[in-house]
Amino acid sequence: MSSAYGLLGFKKRVNILKKVKVDGSWKLCPAVVEPNGKLQDKVKVSGRTETHAEGVYYLEWRENGKRMRESVRNRGEVVKRARLRALQLDPEEEKDSRRKTATSTADQPQVVDTPMLPLPVTADFSTQAHG
C-alpha cells in the first residue's frame, strides 16, 4: 500500500473520471475537482483542461489488484460517493480522522453535567381547603 495520499486526502486512491466525446470518440478522462471540492464539467484531455457538458462520471479504484469502476450520473453526488468509496476501502482512515478530531478537542474545557437533586418538600398542600 502506498503511503502517499490520493484524491480527497485518503490513503486508498479513488479516481474521478468522466467519459466525454473527444474528436468523435468517447474517452475516459480525469475530472478536474475545483479547489472548493466541486465539479464543473472540466476534464483533462491530453494534459489540457477542457469543459465537456456531455458524458457520465465514473469512480475508479482497485480492489485486490483489480480495477473497479462505478458510474455516477448525478454530478452533485460524485465527490461524496468518492469519499464514501475511499472510506469503504480503508476503514482505518475514518478512525484516524476521528482520532485527530478527538485530540484537537482535548485541549478545550469540558462541561460536566451534574445531576439535579430533589428539593425537600416543606409544606403539605393536600390538607388545605380549596374555596
Give a summary of the structure in a few sentences.
The protein is of the alpha+beta class and 131 residues long.
Secondary structure blueprint with pairings:
Blueprint lengths: L14 E8 L2 E9 L5 E7 L2 E4 L4 E8 L2 E7 L5 H12 L1 H15 L26
Antiparallel strand pairs: 1-2, 1-5, 2-3, 3-4, 5-6
Helix pairs in contact: 1-2
Question: Overview of this structure, please?
Answer:
It is a single chain. A hairpin with a 2-residue loop joins strand 1 (15-22) and strand 2. The chain contains two helices and six strands, in the order E-E-E-E-E-E-H-H. Helix 1 packs across helix 2 (91-105). The protein has a domain at 7-91. The longest helix is centred in the last third of the chain and has 15 residues, at 91-105. It is an alpha+beta fold. It has helices at 78-89, 91-105; strands at 15-22, 25-33, 39-45, 48-51, 56-63, 66-72. The radius of gyration is 27 Å and the shape is globular. The chain has a six-stranded antiparallel β-sheet, covered by helices on one side.
Counted beta strands: 6
Oligomeric form: single chain
Structural class: alpha+beta
Largest sheet: 6 strands, antiparallel
The side-by-side strand order for the widest beta sheet comes to 4-3-2-1-5-6
Strand content: 25-35%
Residue runs with pLDDT of under 50 for 5 or more positions = 1-10, 107-117
Shape summary: globular
Q: How many helical elements?
A: 2
Q: Keywords for this structure?
A:
about 130 residues; alpha+beta; six-stranded antiparallel β-sheet; 6 strands; about 20% helix
